[in-house]
């Protein structure tokens, strides 16, 4: 890390991100093209409507959509797309939100298995608009008849979430979901925040597709709304109402445009080859160690990205998977691994947000902590419950 690193100047820990695209760590490495576009526009004035028109053209081309715009986040995109589906272009109705009492339609159907939390509840992003969530089926079982039965004359939209967060079986496929919704005249909104596929959801029946600008695209914090012109326009017009608090500045719009255009030109094969080198290094570092089972696994939602799944047998390795993850995070430099399922005795190492050379530091830190554990006379095993409570307590202590 260079001494000019703003993090050391501000007393912040220089973390290495081996966990993927995490909002809590600053999302992703913003690509140079986006940094340059933001730098270039920050000191200039621009007509924002025109800048969003320019964004619309780029989004339309990248996503195979009729139109698009940039908002504060994908989460904001959910709220605005739902709001637009309720109000259309009626400015008076837009100003009345979240009061929906005079609107003919204010319900949004969502499969129960899609009502997840991406840092905040999906359900709340819908409710902020004033809409009511109608849950479809059960968490692990949804069928076309559940969806058809949930849709009424009050249904404004059907929301579909594509993510590793959702229940991974028993859900209605998007094509069938869209078929049932469309047969009843209901538009389909897809939350594909973290999904690399910019064209597939619209091609498979979605009317609106939502993405984060700051995740795989490597843009600044923002959300991309893409889809049918009337729905995109109705969502955009919410900027005169509830969208004001989700306002995005010229720099984020410019950055999203540049990131999307750079994505189209990126050498994706070279990126994958670099990620593969990191995975192979970690695999060779861990293979043959007592109690450690490393395996390269594909992304659960088929993004073109592999991770290293590291399963730890605490008795043989003398440390639990979560204590290893925590030791890595406490270390020098801190390495944050992907540990959201760590109670099952594994975590993942994700190479997609590493700077050149950081994979070597990750390998060294794994070696140091596992060697230390192997020499320990006792198994390093913090009770999971204590770990949960400590995490929650640390969050509640902020700003102290
Ligand atoms: C990250 C994520 C979001 C939130 O995206 P932001 O742009 O950070 O608001 C929404 N849905 C899913 C499935 C996500 O993974």
Order of helices and strands: HEHHEHHEHEHEHEHEEHHHEEHHEEHH
| Strand order across the largest sheet | 2-8-7-6-5-3-4
CATH topology of the largest domain: Aspartate Aminotransferase, domain 2
CATH class (first level) name of the largest domain: Alpha Beta
Q: What's the alpha carbon Rg, rounded to whole Å?
A: 23 Å
Mean pLDDT metric: 97
What is the share of helical residues? 40-55%
Total strand count, please? 12
CATH superfamily of the largest domain: Type I PLP-dependent aspartate aminotransferase-like (Major domain)
Number of domains in the coordinates? Answer: 2
What does this protein structure show overall?
Pfam families: SelA. It comes from Consotaella salsifontis. Belongs to the SelA family. Its cofactor is pyridoxal 5'-phosphate. This protein has 400 residues and is of the alpha/beta class. The radius of gyration is 23 Å and the shape is globular. The chain starts with 5 loop residues before the first helix and ends with a helix. It folds into two domains: 149 residues, Aspartate Aminotransferase, domain 1, CATH 3.90.1150.180; 235 residues, 3-Layer(aba) Sandwich (Aspartate Aminotransferase, domain 2). A seven-stranded mixed sheet has the order 2-8-7-6-5-3-4, sandwiched between helices. The protein is built from 16 helices and twelve strands. The protein binds pyridoxal-5'-phosphate. Pyridoxal-5'-phosphate binds next to helix 4.
């Amino acid at each position: 890390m260079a001494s000019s690193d703003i993090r050391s100047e501000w007393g912040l820990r220089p973390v290495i991100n081996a966990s993927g695209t995490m909002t809590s760590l600053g999302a992703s490495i913003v690509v140079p093209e986006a940094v340059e576009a933001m730098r270039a526009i920050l000191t200039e004035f621009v007509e924002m409507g025109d800048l969003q028109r320019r964004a619309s053209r780029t989004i339309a081309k990248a996503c195979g959509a009729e139109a698009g715009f940039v908002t504060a986040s994908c989460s904001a995109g959910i709220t605005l797309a739902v709001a637009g589906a309720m109000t259309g272009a009626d400015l008076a109705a837009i100003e009345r939100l979240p009061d929906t009492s005079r609107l003919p339609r204010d319900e949004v159907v969502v499969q129960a298995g899609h009502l997840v939390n991406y840092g905040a509840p999906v359900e709340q992003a819908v409710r902020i608009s004033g809409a009511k969530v109608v849950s479809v089926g059960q968490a692990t079982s949804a069928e076309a008849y559940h969806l058809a039965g949930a849709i009424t004359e009050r249904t404004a939209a059907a929301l579909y979430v594509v993510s590793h967060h959702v229940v991974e079986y028993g859900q209605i496929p998007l094509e069938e979901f869209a078929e049932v919704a469309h047969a009843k005249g209901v538009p389909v909104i897809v939350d594909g925040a973290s999904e690399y596929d910019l064209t597939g959801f619209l091609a498979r029946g979605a009317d609106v597709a939502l993405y984060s600008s700051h995740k795989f695209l490597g843009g600044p914090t923002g959300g991309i709304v893409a889809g049918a012109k009337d729905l995109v326009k109705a969502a955009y017009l919410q900027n005169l109402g509830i969208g004001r608090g989700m306002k995005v500045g010229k720099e984020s719009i410019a950055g999203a445009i540049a990131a999307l255009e750079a994505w189209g030109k990126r050498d994706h094969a070279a990126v994958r080859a670099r990620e593969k080198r990191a995975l192979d290094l970690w695999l060779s570092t861990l293979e043959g160690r007592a109690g450690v089972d490393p395996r390269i696994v594909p992304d659960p939602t088929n993004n073109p990205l592999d991770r290293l799944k590291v399963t730890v047998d605490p008795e043989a390795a003398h440390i639990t998977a979560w204590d290893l993850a925590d030791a890595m995070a406490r270390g020098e430099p801190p390495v944050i691994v992907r540990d959201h399922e760590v109670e099952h005795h594994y975590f993942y190492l994700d190479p997609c947000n590493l700077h050149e050379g950081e994979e070597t530091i990750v390998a060294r830190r794994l070696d140091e902590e596992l060697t230390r554990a192997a020499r320990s006379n006792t198994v390093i095993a913090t009770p999971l419950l204590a770990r949960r409570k400590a995490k929650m307590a640390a969050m509640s202590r902020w700003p102290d």
